[in-house]
């Protein structure tokens, strides 16, 4: 693709680095921005900078937040004795959209995957153990995709938690095997939370 300007070419290259954005879509975005006044372009630029300079991570659950605690952890109306353990932020958003869960979360930041070189030490697992003991948690819910990596992660955490006297459950398999939570419809995911089952090693 030939560009009439190095500045336009660089902008297209940067947009095309985003997931799901090809060169043609990136070019459309750049041409759209060229037609805009300076004010909306500056607001877009500032919002992107804020993502890297202002955004924080919750000290409790590792969710993204504007302050030390995310809105969920800071909510006294949530049941803080139940922790739903998820892979990443997208899973929290998917479950919250069901309006069926009133506990809190713990984001691991990934799942155990030896093939990808991701081990327990690369995830937020130790902070989960510390949190369980500190808060006297009553139940842990595993909400992982129904994959080998998801099952491996749940198995590892369960083995470590066996000495603790708490209920361990998993969302019901209303989710297709190999399916990702973020792509599940809200009704199915909501029923999976409500119909969670004891997690057996």
Helix-strand layout with pairing:
Elements: H1 6-16, H2 23-35, H3 38-53, E1 56-57, E2 64-65, E3 79-86, H4 89-96, E4 103-107, H5 126-135, E5 139-142, H6 148-161, E6 167-170, H7 186-194, E7 197-198
Parallel strand pairs: 3-4, 3-5, 5-6
Antiparallel strand pairs: 1-2, 6-7
Helix pairs in contact: 1-2
Explain what the structure shows.
There is one protein chain. The chain is built from 7 helices and 7 strands; from the N terminus they run H-H-H-E-E-E-H-E-H-E-H-E-H-E. With 201 residues, the protein is an alpha/beta fold. The chain has 2 domains: 6-53, Helicase, Ruva Protein, domain 3; 64-198, Dna Topoisomerase Vi A Subunit, Chain: A, domain 2 (3-Layer(aba) Sandwich). A 5-stranded mixed beta sheet has the order 4-3-5-6-7. A two-stranded antiparallel sheet has the order 1-2.
Structural class: alpha/beta
- Report the CATH C-level class of the largest domain: Alpha Beta
- Relative helix content: 40-55%
CATH-derived architecture of the largest domain: 3-Layer(aba) Sandwich
Computed Rg: 21 Å
Q: Label the overall shape.
A: elongated
Question: Strand share of the residues?
Answer: 5-15%
Number of domains: 2
Mean pLDDT: 88
List keywords for this structure.
7 helices, 7 strands, two-stranded antiparallel sheet, Dna Topoisomerase Vi A Subunit, Chain: A, domain 2, Helicase, Ruva Protein, domain 3, alpha/beta, 2 domains, 201 residues, five-stranded mixed β-sheet
Structure in a nutshell:
This protein is of the alpha/beta class and 201 residues long. It has seven helices and seven strands, in the order αααβββαβαβαβαβ.
């Amino acid at each position: 693709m030939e560009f009439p300007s190095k500045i336009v070419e660089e902008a297209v290259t940067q947009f095309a680095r985003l997931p799901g954005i090809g060169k043609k879509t990136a070019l459309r975005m750049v041409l759209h921005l060229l037609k805009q006044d300076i004010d909306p372009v500056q607001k877009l630029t500032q919002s992107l900078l804020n993502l890297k300079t202002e955004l924080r991570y919750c000290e409790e659950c590792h969710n993204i937040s504007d302050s030390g605690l995310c809105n969920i952890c800071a909510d006294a109306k949530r049941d803080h004795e139940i922790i739903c353990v998820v892979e990443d932020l997208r899973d929290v958003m998917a479950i919250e959209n069901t309006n069926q869960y009133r506990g809190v979360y713990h984001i691991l930041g990934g799942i155990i995957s030896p093939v990808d070189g991701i081990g327990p030490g690369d995830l937020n697992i130790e902070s989960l153990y510390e949190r369980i003991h500190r808060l006297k948690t009553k139940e842990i819910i595993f909400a992982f995709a129904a994959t080998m990596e998801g099952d491996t992660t749940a198995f590892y955490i369960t083995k470590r938690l066996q000495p603790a006297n708490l209920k361990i459950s998993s969302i019901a398999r209303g989710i297709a095997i190999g399916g990702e939570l973020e792509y599940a419809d809200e009704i199915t995911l909501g029923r999976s939370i409500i119909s969670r089952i004891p997690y057996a090693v």
